[in-house]
Amino acid sequence: MPHDLTAGGEAAGAALHWRALEGLYASAPINHMFRSSLEITGEGLSRITFLVDPDSFHAAGAAHGTIYFKMLDDAAFYAANTHVTDRFLLTTSFNMHLSKPIKGGRIVAEGRWVSGRRRVLVAESWLLDEEGDECGRGTGTFMRSRIALSSLPGYSVPQVSS
Q: Average pLDDT for residues 108-129, to the nearest whole number?
């Protein structure tokens, strides 16, 4: 019998959902432009490892703000979507603060769900450079869409027997 992810908080079901979210991230066409990978590290938690190279720099030799937004939004989004197993979330608002120029290298974006589970969810995220310094921070609100996760080609939940 297939495992039903909407049935409740079973740890095995949650882990399947998290792996499917990681597959969804990897399959998104936009993510083929970036050297990055998503790891769901627990309920309400995400980590994106991102390599920033000079191709994404502005004229003054550091990462353009679009790179900050991409990493912060994605980390917060996926942290929030760990709590929603049936629908794709949409970013409705995102506020960010940039605190240090990113000059390249390996950047880690971490996301954490803050509140909400039904229609609107709030999550925060932060960026850490190779020295462990915070480069930016953001908070987003995310709304359940009408798009079923199961309808998206990259979201593939392995079936397990019971």
A: 96
**Distances 138 to 26, 51, 68 between C-alpha atoms, Å:** 22, 19, 9
Mean pLDDT of the chain: 91
Q: Compute the Cα dihedral for 71, 30, 149, 106 and give only its sign.
A: negative
Structure tokens at 57: 């720099």
pLDDT tens for 73-95 read 999 999 999 999 999 999 999 99
Q: Using an 8 Å Cβ cutoff, are 30 and 74 in contact?
A: no
Place of tokens 């990897």: 26
Question: Any idea what the Cα angle at residue 27 is, between residues 15 and 21, rounded to 5°?
Answer: 20
Angle (nearest 5°) at CA 120 between 114 and 121: 20
**8 Å CB contact between 150 and 88:** no
Distance between CA atoms of 134 and 115, rounded to whole angstroms?
23
The 10 Å Cβ neighbour count of residue 122 is 15
